[in-house]
Structures are given as structure tokens and as C-alpha cells.
Amino acid sequence: MRRLGSNHDIRETHPAFRIVTILMENTVVTNPNPHDRSLQRVTSAGAVAWLLAMAFCDRAFAQSDPTYEDITVSTERRTALQAESLSISATPEVAPRLEHPSYIVGLGALVAPVYDGSNKTKVSPYPYVDIRGLLDDHLFLSSLRGIGVNVLDAGPFRGGLTLNYAGGRTSSDDPRLRGLPDVKSGVAVGGFLTWSLANFSVEADTDNTLGSDGRLEAALGANYSMTPVPRLHLSIGAHVNWGDSRYGRVNFGITPAEAAQANALGNPLTAYNAKAGVTTVGFTGAGLYQLGKHWGLVGRVGLQDLVGSGAKNSPLTQRAFVPSVALGAMYQF
To answer: Of 171, 291, 303, which Cα lies nearest the Cα of 236?
Structure first.
């Protein structure tokens, strides 16, 4: 952070400060008689003018001081890091308004089931990009949240639209999927609405995946963030997810033809019709520890349970409890 030399004081030459000095000299009266209280005063007009000039002086001093901009940016860097723990937790996708763009990249490892309900775990690279504050904080770009536009900013409420990537799966990912068709990746169009109060926030969002394996998901989440020590940013949250009949069919359903194909390949599956309804309930915790001005360590733990009958009773569900862990490093420009 840039600092001014100790011999530089803008107040000595600033016009507003000179106005204050003149007003003080002309409105404050020295009382030769301590028992005469009528002289121990500042005139009303002088007091008002003095206060206005002082306020103007303080504002002008702050705007003229080159450290003022650095303090603002530094504060927003801490705000962005605090918001990062919210984004990493993904519960919910809410962040405070920023006056300057924030650029954060990271790389880590994700340990999670191959698919929701699988008892097979895999380790995957976990690249992370989060850019926010673009176009006067109307545009953001994130590997978790996709490309988004903030269209509502009214007090505690924020809302917007998102365009994101919806991942798929292949029958070779898990022996339980052998003989079943692959679930194709696609583009998900969604929207979100958040309400925030201090460090607490609530969000409702939807994602509609387009294409032959299209499906609709909706979620309701709540999150609380904190900074127990200056360099450590934490967030904890809970969420409940809902999926339509297409979501159930794509992720947990099995048609009679698919069951026959799987059985022919030695995978004993029965036909199953997964209906619309609540799919999962989960808890997440995320943390970010600052190593310095730019570098930091990040971590995320997710605990999710398949509670809906459509997902829980599917032949593809081998375990209802779905944990995940991600660890990595991040860099803030």
C-alpha cells in the first residue's frame, strides 16, 4: 500500500481547511470573565458553517489522498476473499457488490463419487476460476457458477441469469452403469434470487439443461460466513435439491430396453421409473486461508444424502450418502 511522506499534509494548503481555520478564528470568543457564560459560545451560524466546512474538508482530504484508493481496493480484496468461501461452498451463489473487478484462479483435487449414488470414488482435477465485478458488477465468470448477469440489485435482494456447463457420465465410469446409455453433457440455463443480511444469506436457483438429456433442477440453500481470525474465511451452509421427471429419468431411471441390454452384459438391473421430487439434502463447509497478499489455500467438504424416493430407491443407487472433499491453492490478482 502506498503511503505519504510524514512531512506532507494536504490540510495545510487545502482551501476547505483554510475555511475551517478562518471560521474558528472568527466565531470562537475568548472569555476574559469565567463567570460570564454568554461569551463562552460559538455562534449558531458559525457552528453550522464550521461543521459543513469540516465535512467538506474531510471528504476532499480522503479523495485527494492517494492512499484512499488503495484502502478501498484492499478492503474489496478482503471482501472478495470472504465471498470466495461462499462461492467455493456453492451454497448459495451470493456475493456482496464490488466496485472493482476481482480475479481469482486456483487448482486442486476433488475426491467424490463417480455419480450421485455410486459407491465408487475417484480423484479429479479441480480447476477454479472466479471473476466478478465486471461491467459495474453486472457480469461474472466462474468455473462453478458459469457465466452470469446480475439483473436485480435492490437492497438485500440480488438476482440474475446464468449460463453454465452441465456435466454428463459414461457407462464406463462405473460397473453399475454397464449396458446403459451415456448421459450427454449440455448447456444449462438458469436463474437465481438471493436475500442477504450481514453474513447470512438465502438463495433459490434453477438450472434447465438443454438437449436430448434435458432436465430441470431447483435448489434452496442457506449460508453463513465468518472470519474467526484475520486470514481465515469460513462458510457453512445447507441446501435441498429438487428435480423434475426428466432429471429422475436421466440420472436414476432405467427403461425396460436398457434393463434388458444391461442384463445381457452381465449387469443385473431392473426397469425403474424415477419420478419428480426432492432428490438430495446436503451440508457444505468451505474455508480459505490467506498465505499472503495473493496466495491462499482453499478447501471444501460436502455431505449429501439422497433422500427422495425416486433417487434413493433406484437400482443405480448403491449408497445414499454422498460425501466429497476438495483441496487446492488459489491466486488473487
So the answer is: 303
Residues 43, 120 share a domain: no
**In a domain? residue 284:** yes
Structural domain range at position 267: 76-332
Cα dihedral 325, 304, 180, 275 in deg (nearest 10):
-160
Residue 267 confidence class, pLDDT cut points 50, 70, 90: very high
* Phi, psi of 289, rounded to the nearest 5 degrees: -115, 125
CB atoms within 10 A of CB 94: 21
Give pLDDT tens digits for 24-69: 444 444 444 444 443 334 344 444 333 333 333 343 333 444 443 4
**Per-position DSSP letters for 126-155, written without gaps between them:** EEEEEEEEHHHHTEEEETTTEEEEEEEEET
325 in Cβ contact with 298 (< 8 Å): no
